[in-house]
Amino acid sequence: MIKSYGEFWSHIFTFNAKANRSQYWWPIILNYILGGIAVTIVELAMGHSLNTIYTWGDWYINDIAKLIVLIVWIGTWSLRVRRLHDTNRSGWWILIELIPLLGTIWFFILMILPGVSNSRWSRNQSQI
């Protein structure tokens, strides 16, 4: 679990490898849990929602939160592409999520499929 999460951050810009199911799901689950905890702590410390801006400090915290979300989004995007490569699909399959509801369901199914041993992408993210 910890190794998969470390690989998520160390391969944040790696799009030319593949990631197996555990290398995909552990970082996704941990990011949701840690994100929820972080937002709760910051909102309790501020006394209001992150989106509510009363002072310049609130503005600064809101901008930092948006920057963190962007960085995690880039890492998740590259991880999703690597997971698609493990199922021998192009990273362009990520665009299937643009189809409302059905695209999200189909993409979830693609993420839970087992990897293919003779994939076009031969190296796992651990081997880079």
Automatic annotation (TrEMBL):
UniProt keyword terms in alphabetical order = Membrane, Transmembrane, Transmembrane helix
Alphabetized Pfam families for the sequence = DUF805
Q: Which residues form a coiled coil?
A: none
Membrane is among the record's keywords: yes
Note the superkingdom of the native organism. Answer: Bacteria
Annotated Gene Ontology cellular components are: plasma membrane
Q: Which residues cross the membrane?
A: 24-47, 59-79, 91-113
| The name this protein goes by in its record | Integral membrane protein
> What species is this protein from?
Lentilactobacillus kefiri DSM 20587 = JCM 5818
Its taxonomic placement starts with:
Bacteria, Bacillati, Bacillota, Bacilli, Lactobacillales
